Amino acid sequence: MTFGVPLLLYLIGGSFGLREFAQIRYDVHKLHGKVDPALKEKLKPNTVTLESEYEKLEKSNLDNWENIRGPSLWEDSRTVQKQRREALRLKTESQD
């Protein structure tokens, strides 16, 4: 009896409280649900198609690619990037 009554009050009060908070949520959504037409134009979905992306891939040169390894967890990314830039600079200078 000492646990049953508070539990029932808690459950019933929680259901009413939840209903009120949910109603507030839906009321606010109705008020702020209207979108500015300029923003709506900006948010229109892109007209990117599968065919256009395939054409981009066709134009790209996939035969001359270079595998670039990212830094490991224990490596400092800035020093790794600096070393790679230096190696690339030396490589391009030696080709000239």
UniProtKB/TrEMBL annotation:
It comes from the Eukaryota. Residues 1-17 form the signal peptide. It is found in: Mitochondrion inner membrane. One of its GO terms (cellular component) is mitochondrial inner membrane. It is a single-pass membrane protein. Keywords: Membrane, Mitochondrion, Mitochondrion inner membrane, Signal, Transmembrane, Transmembrane helix. GO terms for biological process: mitochondrial respiratory chain complex IV assembly. Belongs to the COX16 family. This is Cytochrome c oxidase assembly protein COX16 homolog, mitochondrial.
